[in-house]
């Protein structure tokens, strides 16, 4: 058993509390990882608010981390102590019908099919003050040590800087993959990205790498525009600067609407605006943002009847275990610069300050 620090969410609506926890050794088929760095994704904020489905409290959140294998359970063969790894919030069991389908990345062992609040044997490896603490998405990266199933871990290049590639665990891979895999952005095309957080800016990177000719970045926080431009946005617009709905502004700017639009905020109104902003016949709109659980969207069906395609994405469509190591290699070859997404680096004890920066749009 390892004693270390972890950030525990005891109940919805409360700040995280950094506690000493006990982390049990990995059982058969499990891996214990020393987490070196973790990012904060808006999905963790959904967890703290209690608006993500099927999460059980008390819980150790965090799902965008990178670390080093500390020990392995019986039968583990794909990683060994000392390996650099990224824990996966979307597993790849390799056996379910989705894993066997080359078109799908949505392993049936994922949280939406079967809650990942306890490890597959239905027990937790975390305790704090004598209480059992739940895992989050099986990976709980807001802990100095965490235990995950072997199929929820990807071994990466030993040269990878963990404090940079932790973003590949969620935000970067999601945004970049939404453009490359889900939308399949074509060279010369026009794109619109709604929301310029870590995920939206990663969509901008993906559109640029895919060869889009025009990338229109949309946010109500104009402080995000300089970074968006640095990453490849050609135009930046703030919906609050216009009297007209933003979909009309985008349609006027582009003639017939954009070829690809992405909603990376998580609001029903911006999801509809993003859909209406793409070309009425050939446009593709990708929903990346997450709505609060229980919310619904109602649209004029004519938006789709004319031919538009409306898609969602989970983690950018990557089969995580097999694709993440390749993405990390592309990063090391400087195919893109995801380091620009990092705005602040804080010590673990200041995790709540990190959330305050996220809420403040910083
Ligand atoms: P973030 O909070 O860092 O960024 C959101 C951005 O949206 C901010 O820049 C904010 O100013 C902007 N925004 C808010 N309201 C707006 C409006 N009305 N119009 C225009 N811009 C507006 O969030 P993030 O970490 O980048 O995550 C974005 C979304 O993606 C979240 O909903 C998150 O849960 C979701 N997400 C989905 C997946 C997936 O697999 N589909 C993975 C990770 C994150
Ligand atoms: Zn995330």
UniProtKB/TrEMBL annotation:
Gene name as annotated: Adh1_2
Pfam families for this protein: ADH_N, ADH_zinc_N
Q: Which residues form a coiled coil?
A: none
Give the keywords, sorted.
Answer: Acetylation, Metal-binding, NAD, Oxidoreductase, Zinc
Q: Which residue ranges run through the membrane?
A: none
GO-annotated molecular function: all-trans-retinol dehydrogenase (NAD+) activity; zinc ion binding
What this protein is called in its record is Alcohol dehydrogenase I
Against SUPFAM superfamilies, the record matches this protein to: GroES-like, NAD(P)-binding Rossmann-fold domains
Query: What family is this?
Result: Belongs to the zinc-containing alcohol dehydrogenase family.
The organism is Edolisoma coerulescens
Q: Name one GO biological process term.
A: retinoic acid metabolic process
Domain (Enoyl reductase (ER)) spans: 13-361
What are the names of the required cofactors? Answer: Zn(2+)
Q: Which domain of life is it from?
A: Eukaryota
Entry's PROSITE patterns? ADH_ZINC
Single GO cellular component annotation? Answer: cytosol
